[in-house]
Specification:
heterodimer; A: 453 residues; mainly alpha; Formate dehydrogenase/DMSO reductase fold; B: 955 residues; alpha/beta; Rossmann fold; Dimethylsulfoxide Reductase, domain 2; 5 domains; six-stranded mixed β-barrel; globular
């Protein structure tokens, strides 16, 4: 163990001494084994929720948006809340893999694979909502600017919803490409280790003929860097554009220039919380404590602390601006958030997002796995409430009091949301069964570097 | 038959080549109709759904299934006319003049189907206005629940069998024969009834469930005419009303609204009128008053006597101290405008009405603002009905013929009436649909709807209005008048009978115009003597202990005869904004002390009468008063009316006349929560600058008062729209809008706006394109009320347009904000971003499957499917029609050629103005120059095309 030390001050990235072969075995043996009972249980429960969610969505699409709790005043609520929530969660993956790669943060190697996978699954969950929230989802392909026979009738480039289409689809494409690129050496390793012929074939195809030559590695390194460069602006752009769905409108509580940075910080905040939630369980179940260490958890809690404070600052700024602007509608919208009929949602948001991360100032609490796990879930709840507060409380009381109304979700909306969790976890469970959950090649690269000669 | 071109007669500018003529040979040709509607289709819908029928059909279907393989399905072909009907041009509307409940109307028919009712602008009383009931009546015509064939003892039979059995029964009847009708204002029907009375030695009794008997009785005492008074609100500088809802349910509301609203115009040469209103519960009229005082029935009587004492020096009365100032102020105003004032009371109480007549007489108002006229009509006398029920119970009535009535539902002692009815040997009911009474009546004859009937009406002594049929009877029904003629052996049709009765008139022109101005109004001479006995009777009126339970008439629903009309049920009440229900209205202070909230279930108890219903906390209700609407709680009725709400008629009592506010009882809270379908639940403007208002005196000093302009600096990111051609705009005068809501139904009928039902309204998903926002200001118990029509504002910088990803909502070249239904994918972003919240989303596929109701759809407007957004289109089909007409006639489109639906039917004077804002001479352009002009939320710089004019109160 002592071999791995470079500095007395820094904990080694892989604390326990392992050979390369052992690392491969630690991470990849799970793919060769029969699924554990815990995996089977988790997968079945997720798949069950996914199935229920699917049936509920089928019912809703077949019957109409009227099966939701929306009304003439509140045209969006849980649907877009859930959309922004999932897009936000999808943020951490690219941030970890792209931004941290460029900044040469080596600790990222143990968590980037799972975080990227999570990103893709979260974006998949997010994508469901814009699709099913449309009154006529079967015509939603009209939002794509494809050549058609309808004469001058095309898409509206002034609409933030159209920008969303571009932003999200670009983000998803680049994230998938980046993720897959990273997988190539590991897929080849799985191909080489497996004894089953069919697996050899499948992973062989997926590995794109990776042969481990110097040239291959070189191309791979260059390509990773290029994709990281491409992905980095997307980290900012996606949530900036999502925030413009609100910021470019005229509804008090939506019409705010602070939204882009505020939404990006919030997205990183919730994304890291979700990564923590998932990895704390995964490292325990798959015995990966040696790779996803306390050091990783500690760093991620610090990111949560910082972004949590940015979010808190944004909340404060919004209130200040509402007062400072002298705009009566704006003022009312914010007073109504804190003291109106949805005050409980607002104060849940504040306690979860502003107060709860403050515990991470304490190193002792940062190192308590159950506590970190608890806070990571609290933050996710808080961020869901943030979107609910922004969307619903701004809409329910806008300019003309004659139209003010209230909203409550129906069972259809609740089960649709639960269904997306089913989808998310089903995909995640499949992922850790069939693909290397930790980037083996990358961990090996930092392992050697960290070793004393 | 002469075809009168309506253009030359200048009747309705918006129609294209619409001809009105005698319809019997044209549109009512049965051959044409069966081609149009396929009458067989109707019959297949008439199969009753029962288990037995289900099994029959099931059995048939299963056994027929194997055979269908061998049967060639007949090809349905749409064939063009071989000989085209002269005036039926597919795609072009025909307009016919008719009358609905005394309101002269024009009926728009398309390919033989009536689809829209509009006011008849030839009328001098209504001036082209129509109320909510008239607008909604087209759905009552197509009501599938209407009776299809005559019935004897509950079993259906053919008309000839019915006729012979009925005639036989009538000839064999012993004992008294009575014919009961509602109040009749038709001279020709009365003539026919006279023959009936002569032949059978019958007595004729008029019975109105919501009665104004006391008015006629008082007029008999004071002027010697048993008749309702007529009013001229335009001449009244000061109006004092004791709970008379003359803009709503008081009768003749269209004419009253028209005249009254003229005087709400600050620029009227005679100035603005001043309106005092005293009532225990908020009515539509009260909400328009300049000074409205919430007072209990007892205090109301006190104030009435105070006013009497004020104008009649020989009468002494000391008013309660808190009302002294009010009375002094009112008396001074009334005296200052002697001969130009008007005092009314809504109470069906003879003493009160005599005193009101006396006050008007003393003020010299007779012949100026109020007229005791004599028309050929029979008005209800409540005592007659009560005595008839007694005679029925005593068994002395042998034959009873009821026309269009439903006393088993709406007589205050329905059980007693039913018991009496069972003792009558030959009981007969002419009715539109089965009802509570028809279940107990031996002979039940389905009668034609108004729009399938001939008749005439003289609601006003100055105007005759003709009712002509506009469609062949839909359900094998017959005019009751023709059934009567059959019975009496009168030759010919009722049309001939009517025509011969008016042989002095040019019949073609009469039908074409719909109305004939007969004479001016003259008032009978007053013969009021000493008033003291009446005043003493008022003073000594006993009032019970406990809460005063008022059974009031609800706007639109009225006595409940049109309760099966979905348009009327979904019309938000102008005051409570509640739909689809009746409820107990309580005051805010009562609610506070008893911990009541809107939607709580309460139980009202008055002796044996117990009634559970939801409560609404209604500002402007007197603390000790709880009000329940009549017209609900039908136990027999169509799918809309049946079991909806509670029947409040048991709260009516009889005290020489029917008394609607004489019930005293208790209210208890059951603890249950009930669904209340209100379209508006927040009632304060929150201090926002939405309805701008001022007082008349401030306005005279500065016409811009109350209208602080804050037009923003305009900065555009995107290039401005080109403004070639016409640029449509609208102005709404908040001062003359009474909030009556007739425009809502007019809009819904014109634009095929779906009715969504109680639960969906409660879910806040009402679909009305045009709504009336109603706000309160000031003291909860005596609030000031503001009504504001709110519809798509057709913004130049429309926030909805920017956000649609697929360009489904765009600006038209003539400045309209258009919704392209086919392109809409339903993201609802536009609705979210609309600051006026006027966009309406199709949450489901709304039901248009009723084979008859479908016929009322406007073929010029698409029916929207689920998942798409819709909203006010500024009646683009009317704009298009107007433009095409002008083009075909090779002329410029003139100002006023196009009238949008809400504008056309608005009963008030010049409240909604539509036109080309680019034309400097158009009426709308004048309004835009007005000092009172503003746009709602103008600081947002969305630049609405709908303008408002500040509300002025005469204070």
């Amino acid at each position: 163990m002592s071999d791995a030390h470079v500095s007395e001050l820094r904990q080694p990235l892989v604390p326990e001494e392992r050979t390369y072969k052992q690392i491969s075995e630690d991470i990849l043996d799970t793919l060769e084994e029969k699924p554990s009972k815990a995996w089977l249980f988790g997968f079945s429960v997720s798949a069950m929720f996914l199935t229920i969610g699917f049936l509920v969505v089928a019912y809703q699409v077949g019957t109409g948006i009227g099966t939701w709790g929306l009304n003439k005043t509140i045209g969006w609520s849980w649907d877009i809340t859930n959309f922004v929530f999932w897009v936000g969660i999808g943020h951490a993956g690219t941030l970890i893999s792209a931004v941290l790669l460029i900044f040469r943060q080596r600790w990222r190697t143990a968590i980037n694979r799972a975080a990227e996978a999570m990103t893709i699954f979260a974006v998949a969950c997010a994508g469901i909502f814009p699709l099913i929230h449309a009154g006529r989802p079967w015509l939603l392909y009209w939002v794509f600017p494809y050549p058609n026979t309808r004469g001058p009738l095309w898409v509206n480039f002034r609409s933030p919803l159209l920008w969303d289409v571009f932003a999200i689809s670009t983000y998803l494409t680049v994230s998938v490409a980046f993720w897959y690129m990273g997988l190539l050496p590991d897929l080849a390793l799985v191909r080489d280790r497996t004894k089953s012929g069919i697996r050899k074939f499948i992973y062989g195809v997926l590995a794109f003929g990776w042969n481990g030559s110097n040239r291959t590695w070189h191309h791979w390194e260059v390509m990773s860097l290029i994709l990281a460069g491409l992905a980095t602006p997307l980290v900012l752009s996606v949530h900036t554009i999502v925030s413009m769905d609100f910021a470019t409108s005229i509804i008090p509580g939506w019409h705010t220039t602070i939204f882009p940075p505020y939404f990006v910080a919030g997205a990183v905040f919730s994304g890291f919380a979700m990564v923590l939630t998932l990895l704390i369980i995964t490292r325990k179940v798959l015995n990966w404590e040696n790779y996803i260490t306390m050091e990783h958890i500690d760093k991620m809690t610090k990111v949560i602390l910082v972004t949590g404070m940015i979010v808190g600052l944004a909340y404060g700024t919004e209130f200040f601006m509402a007062w400072y602007s002298g705009n009566e509608y704006e003022r009312y919208a914010f007073v109504n958030r804190a003291t109106g009929p949805y005050w409980w949602a607002y104060w849940s948001m504040i306690s979860c997002n502003v107060i709860s991360p403050q515990f991470f100032w304490s190193k002792k609490l940062r190192n308590s796995i159950p506590f970190v796990f608890f806070i990571s879930i609290v933050v996710n709840i808080g961020m869901w409430f943030e979107r609910f507060v922004i969307i619903t409380t701004s809409l329910h009381r806008d300019f003309l009091p004659s139209s003010w109304s209230m909203y409550s979700p129906t069972w259809v909306e609740i089960w649709t949301f639960i269904g997306t969790f089913g989808l998310f976890f089903t995909l995640f469970f499949i992922f850790i069964r069939v693909l290397p959950g930790i980037a083996v090649a990358e961990v090996k690269s930092i392992y050697k570097f960290a070793k004393k000669h | 038959m002469s075809n009168l071109d309506n253009k030359s007669s200048g009747t309705n500018e918006t129609q294209v080549d619409g001809y009105w003529q005698d319809v019997e040979q044209k549109v009512l040709d049965p051959k044409v109709l069966s081609q149009e509607f396929g009458t067989d289709e109707f019959d297949s819908f008439s199969v009753k759904k029962s288990r037995r029928n289900f099994l029959k059909i099931m059995g048939f279907s299963v056994s027929a299934m194997p055979l269908t393989g061998c049967i060639k399905i007949p090809v349905k072909k749409a064939l063009p006319y071989l000989n085209k009907q002269d005036d039926v041009i597919p795609g072009v509307a025909n307009w016919y003049a008719s009358t609905f409940e005394g309101t002269p109307v024009l009926v728009k028919t398309r390919e033989g189907r009536p689809i829209k009712i509009e006011g008849n602008d030839k009328s001098k009383t209504t001036m082209g206005g129509a109320n909510a009931r008239a607008q909604a009546s087209v759905l009552s015509l197509y009501d599938s629940y209407r009776l299809r064939s005559p019935m004897v003892n509950g079993s259906s039979l053919e008309w000839d069998q019915f006729d012979s059995q009925f005639a036989k029964a009538m000839s064999e009847t012993t004992g008294e024969v009575v014919i009961v009708t509602p109040s009749i204002t038709s001279p020709t029907e009365l003539k026919l009834l006279k023959s009936f009375i002569k032949k059978y030695g019958a007595t004729h009794i008029a019975y109105d469930a919501v009665s104004r008997s006391a008015f006629a009785e008082a007029n008999e005492i004071t002027h010697g005419v048993f008749n309702q008074s007529e009013y001229n609100f335009e001449q009244a500088d000061v109006v004092l009303s004791f709970g008379a809802d003359f803009l709503g349910t008081f009768g003749n509301d269209v004419a009253n609204t028209r005249q009254y609203s003229k005087r709400r115009n600050a620029k009227h040469p005679q100035g603005m009128n001043k309106h005092y209103h005293i009532e225990p519960m908020m009515t539509l009229t009260g909400s328009n008053a300049d000074y409205r005082y919430t007072r209990s029935a007892v205090e109301e009587r006190d104030i009435l006597l105070g006013v009497l004492a004020g104008v009649d020096s020989s009468f002494k009365h000391s008013v309660q101290s808190e009302n002294k100032d009010i009375v002094t102020k009112m008396v001074n105003d009334l005296k200052a405008s002697s001969g130009k004032s008007l005092v009314l009371s809504g109470h069906n109480d003879v003493n009160t009405q005599v005193v009101v007549n006396k006050i008007n007489a003393l003020l010299g108002n007779y012949g100026q603002t109020v007229f005791a006229t004599k028309t050929e009509s029979v008005f209800a006398k409540d005592a007659d009905m009560v005595s008839l029920v007694d005679r029925m119970n005593a068994g002395s009535v042998g034959g009873l013929v009821m026309i269009g009535l439903n006393p088993s539902y709406n007589y205050f002692q329905a059980d007693k009436f039913n018991a009496g009815l069972n003792k009558v040997k030959v009981s007969t009911l002419f009715t539109l649909a089965e009802n509570e009474t028809s279940k107990l009546t031996k002979f039940v004859a389905p009668m034609n709807h108004t729009y399938e009937s001939w008749s005439d009406s003289m609601v006003s002594s100055s105007e005759l209005s003709i009712t002509q049929p506009v469609i062949q009877p839909l359900f094998g029904t017959r005019m009751w008048t023709e059934s009567m003629m059959n019975l009496l052996g009168v030759e010919g049709t009722f049309h001939d009978y009517l025509k011969s009765n008016w042989s002095s008139l040019d019949w073609s022109k009469t039908l074409h115009d719909g109305v004939v101005i007969v004479s001016g109004m003259t008032s009978a001479a007053s013969k009021i003597g000493n008033i003291n006995s009446y005043a003493a009777a008022i003073k000594n009126t006993k009032s019970g202990t406990g809460l005063n339970i008022v059974a009031y008439t609800k706007y639109g629903i009225e006595n409940g005869d049109m309760a099966n009309n979905p348009f009327l049920q979904e019309l938000p009440n102008p005051i409570t904004k509640a739909t689809w229900d009746n409820y107990a209205m309580v005051s805010p202070s009562f609610a506070k002390t008893n911990g009541l909230k809107s939607g709580d279930e309460v139980e009202l108890t008055d002796g044996k009468i117990k009634m559970k219903l939801p409560c609404i906390v209604q500002p402007g209700t007197e603390t000790n008063t709880v009000a329940v609407a009549l017209g609900y709680g039908h136990t027999v009725g169509g799918k809309v009316a049946k079991n909806l709400g509670r029947n409040a008629y048991p709260f009516v009592s009889f005290d020489n006349t029917f008394n609607y506010c004489g019930s005293y009882g208790a209210l208890s809270i059951t603890g249950k929560k009930l669904v209340l379908a209100q379209t508006q639940t927040h009632h304060s403007m929150e201090g926002r600058d939405i309805v701008r208002e001022t007082t008349f005196s401030a306005f005279q000093e500065n016409p811009k008062s109350g209208n602080q302009v804050h037009k923003p600096k305009t900065v555009h990111i995107y290039p401005a729209h080109k403004k070639d051609g016409h640029q449509w705009g609208m102005a709404i005068n908040l001062s003359s809008c009474t909030g009556c809501s007739a425009c809502i139904i007019s809009c819904s009928a014109e634009n095929n706006v779906p009715v969504v039902g109680k639960q969906e309204v409660a879910n806040k998903r009402d679909m009305h394109w045009l709504r009336l926002d109603r706000y309160y200001k000031g003291d909860e118990n005596q609030p000031e009320v503001m009504h504001m029509p709110m519809l798509c504002q057709h913004c130049d910088n429309a926030p909805c347009e920017n956000v649609c990803p697929v360009l489904a909502t765009v600006q038209s070249s003539d400045g309209l904000n258009q919704q392209i239904y086919n392109r809409c994918v339903g993201t609802r972003y536009c609705a979210n971003n609309c600051p006026y919240k006027v966009r309406r989303f199709n949450w489901f596929n709304y039901d248009h499957s009723d084979a008859h109701e479908r016929l009322a759809l406007n073929p010029d407007v698409g029916v929207r499917s689920r998942g798409i957004m819709e909203k006010c289109s500024m009646c683009i089909q009317r704009i298009q029609e107007g433009k095409l007409t002008a083009k075909r006639e090779r002329r410029e489109l003139a100002d006023g050629d196009i009238k949008v639906a809400c504008q056309q039917s608005c009963p008030s004077d010049n409240t909604i103005i539509f036109g080309d804002i680019k034309d400097p001479n158009s009426e709308i352009s004048q309004y835009l120059e007005d000092d009172r002009q503003y746009t709602v939320l103008e600081e947002l710089n969305v630049q609405p095309r709908v303008n408002y004019l500040t509300k002025i109160r005469n204070k």
